[in-house]
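Thread: quick sanity check before group meeting

JM: Hey all, I'm pulling together slides for Thursday and realized we never actually wrote out the predicted structure for the chain we discussed last week. Dropping the sequence here so it's in one place. If anyone has concerns about the input, flag it before I start.
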Amino acid sequence: MMLKLYGFPSSNYVNMVHLALLEKGVPFEFVLTYPDQSPEFLAKSPRGKVPFMETPNGYLNESSVLLEYIEEATDGVPLLPKDPVEKARVRALMKELELYIELPARSCYPEALFGAKCPDAIKAKARDELIAGFATLKRHAKFSPYLAGDSFTLADIVFFYSVQFGVSVGKKLFEIDFLADFPEAADLLQRLGERPHVQSIAAQRAVEWPKFIASVQAKYGVR
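JM (edit): ok, ran it. Output follows.
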């Protein structure tokens, strides 16, 4: 059977998996799906989140797991190095991006994206973690010309969808431009954004984004 990816275009986690499938050249079906807590949905995604994927052997969830599965279980363009040490370094970059940039930025999304109010303690913690996270990226990434070296990898996918939101949160909430003294990251973001598959996903996101923002603002009671 063909792989099926369940999610919606406004989710950066969904878009990470979507881009990996496109870049590898794997046949798949995208099934427009929103988070749900119904028993039927929870049988496929235990936390009721997206993305999740239908495979010949059942359903899988969590974006980082899906990225690994796509690389290990499908043919196509390799998105991880063959050498075990280099592969581990790519995975370390992916984990650092998730823990130290994406997640701190995400904690401030209600205010940064939707106009709700985040507690000051959460914002202070996110600010400190983002500063440390971008410092970590400066020390660890190669940018030669891709994040982990001379080849496009899963780390570049996580980088693109994590760093752009981290930068947005930094500017909107903290008046910090994390790219001001980080031209290597700014250049890589621009080059990744020019990839045809990235642009096709961005076009789908642009169509859905106003509806998504309105629905979340209604949830938070923002007018």
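AS: nice. The first helix runs from residue 12 to 24. The chain has two domains: 3-73, 84-198.
JM: adding both to the slides.
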